[in-house]
Amino acid sequence: MTAERSADSGQEAPGPGGPARPAWTFLTNHGHVLLSVAQEPDILVADIAERVGITTRAALQILKDLESAGYLLRTRVGRRTHYTIRPHQHFRHPATAAQEVDGLIRLFTAAAPGDAPAAPAEP
Fold first, then answer.
1. Closest Cα to residue 122, out of 68, 89, 90, 86?
2. How many other CB atoms are there within 10 angstroms of residue 106's CB atom?
3. For the CA atoms of 21, 24, 29, 35, what is the dihedral angle to 10 degrees?
4. Which residues have C-beta within 8 Å of that of residue 121, sequence separation ≥ 6?
5. Could you give all domains of the chain from N- to C-terminal order, each with its CATH number?
6. Angle, helices 45-52/56-68, rounded to nearest 10 degrees
């Protein structure tokens, strides 16, 4: 079943047994890719794409965007790629430019309330 959007409410039609969901999300695909890498630094591009719900090609482009903007470093380890997050980079939007991405990463990578969040590595 494909999700149908209600023009007047901005909602997607409910899925099987579920309530309607907003047609938009708070985080962009760039944010989801960054969080995927933060949670699993040796993740495969295909796994990032599946997790985020985008194509492998789109995931690769986003990884290139994040690397060129200084948010992550890519290192080849044999046939695999290891990603290192640079947590002290600031958000790009002027309204949030005073904040570092580390806060977002810590918010979404904490295992459970009260647990110490995993600290991303910085070179």
1. 86
2. 17
3. -60
4. 41, 84, 85
5. 22-109 (1.10.10.10)
6. 100
What value does the CA radius of gyration of the chain take, rounded to a whole number of Å? 17
H or E element that contains 85: strand 80-85
pLDDT, one tens digit per residue, over 77-116 is 999 999 999 999 999 999 999 999 999 999 998 754 444 4
Q: What is the pLDDT of residues 32-90, one digit of tens each?
A: 999 999 999 999 999 999 999 999 999 999 999 999 999 999 999 999 999 999 999 99
Rounded Cα distance, 4 and 91, in Å: 33
Instruction: Give the pTM.
Output: 0.73
